[in-house]
Design goal:
This protein is an alpha/beta fold. The protein contains six helices and 13 strands. A hairpin with a 2-residue loop joins strand 12 and strand 13.
Length: 205
């Protein structure tokens, strides 16, 4: 499974482990560039917003570089991964942090329970709620890899869910903005398929 070389800009929001994501893109023959330059990101045909660490720290870095405004204005496909997905929402309970506000919900802390430790770490089934190009070729109930302590509720923008004592958003999409709570770059063939599908989304002309 390969694609013609496609330039993908990975937002350098600081603190993210980008190597595994870049390797996953290389395996799909896609060229990637890591950048915190707003003009480079504006010109990109597609944008990946990864993230590790806290929402509070990530948003502080985006605001300090002016990238919060840049990301809100993008018209090309953007995929947020893990914390990057959570940053698309209005607010996160993690540090009571205002986020990008592209999606209206609030990201909530997971509550630990017997058999459900927090962070939620490991492989979990993902179930599609509707057909979208990002999930093309994936079986319903596909296992993908999660590592997170906060999660987004299920809303009309949720296109796939996962069950961790309750349904949580696994994939979200609104207009050109989408996100995965799981790590596609760590999710084997199924995750590679998600990245492949993202790379095939038409760029904004």
């Amino acid at each position: 499974m390969t694609v013609d070389p496609i330039d993908v800009v990975i937002v350098d929001s600081g603190g993210a482990n980008l190597a595994s994501l870049q390797f996953a893109l290389e395996r799909l023959s896609a060229r990637s560039l890591v950048s915190a330059d707003g003009e480079v990101i504006r010109r990109a045909p597609r944008v990946l917003l990864p993230g590790v660490g806290s929402a509070q720290d990530a948003m502080a870095r985006l605001r300090a570089t002016g990238l919060d405004g840049v990301l809100r204005e993008l018209r090309q496909p953007l995929l947020g991964i893990c914390l990057g997905m959570q940053l698309l929402y209005r607010r996160s309970e993690e540090g009571d942090t205002p986020c990008l506000g592209i999606l209206p919900a609030t990201v909530r802390r997971l509550e630990p329970a017997k058999g459900r430790p927090v962070p939620h770490m490991g492989w979990n089934r993902v179930h599609a709620r509707r057909d979208v190009a990002l999930l093309d070729g994936l079986e319903d109930g596909e296992h993908l890899y999660f590592v997170h302590s906060f999660a987004a509720p299920v809303t009309p923008d949720s296109v796939a869910v996962t069950d961790y004592g309750m349904d949580l958003t696994a994939v979200v999409q609104r207009d050109n903005f989408s996100g995965t709570q799981f790590h596609p770059e760590r999710s084997g063939k199924a995750g590679a398929r998600v990245l492949y599908n993202f790379l095939r989304l038409p760029a904004c002309s």
